[in-house]
Amino acid sequence: MAEAGIYLKDKEFIHDLIYNYFRNYTIELSRGVKVNIKQVFSYYPHSETADNKFKFCPCCGKEYRPDSLLKCSECGYIFYRNPTPVVVVFIEKENQVLLGLRKGRYGHNKWGFPGGFIEFDEDFLTAAHREVKEETNLHIEICSVLNVVTNYISPSLHTIAIVLLAKVVSGEMKPNDDLKVLEWYSFNSGSEIPDMAFDSEKFIIEHIDNLKKSTIPIDITFSKF
Fold it and tell me: Which of the residue ranges 35-44, 106-115, 216-225 has the most confident prediction, judged by mean pLDDT?
């Protein structure tokens, strides 16, 4: 940690830091900077899982047994149910963030960051450029990684979202795809935040100043599209 230029106060703090890795905690560095972090957000009692909707093995077509846990008794293939990776982008301009009014299945008629699912054959940075272009018609420069969060959205959808910080490079703003309206909102302290689709994105807006003090740099090869 010292080689990275960060000096933690004592061993007890290091223990607490590891223990609370995916919980809500405050990092206090020797220079006196405090960074509030929250990385797990639940929108329902996520210990409840959806019933298995898959009835047949995708490899050999054998019907699953009710107690199979998606392991095929014929060919042995296991269908793993994993969180879905997504990327969302905090696009800033003069202390304002670009938000879109959603028209999709999740968060309908509520506000959120541009972003979406990462496709199988693309990296998360390329996905960010693609999603922003599709939803806003804007070209962006990605500056850094702000946070990574887990969203337990519904029994059938759990996501791991990479939250990126970016700025506009070019393009005429126009809502499209899952967004029907685009607006710039101030994120200055005391400014009113609209009704957000996801608590994780509301948290980002409320703590943006602190989060920007501890961002992760990105591969500059992918900063512009």
Answer: 106-115
DSSP conformational letter for 164: E
Strands (E), 79-199: 84-93, 96-102, 111-112, 115-117, 139-154, 157-170, 179-186
Instruction: Point out which residues pair with 117 in neighbouring strands.
Output: 86
Q: What is the value of pTM for the model shown?
A: 0.80
Tell me the β-bridge partners of 184.
Answer: 98
- C-beta separation of 150 from 132 below 8 A: no
Residue-wise pLDDT tens digits, 85-121:
999 999 999 999 999 999 978 889 999 999 999 999 9
Contact 127, 87 (CB under 8 A): yes
Q: Please report, for residues 45, 79, 142, 151, 161, the alpha-carbon distance to residue 48 in angstroms, rounded to integers and kept in the order given.
A: 6, 19, 36, 14, 21
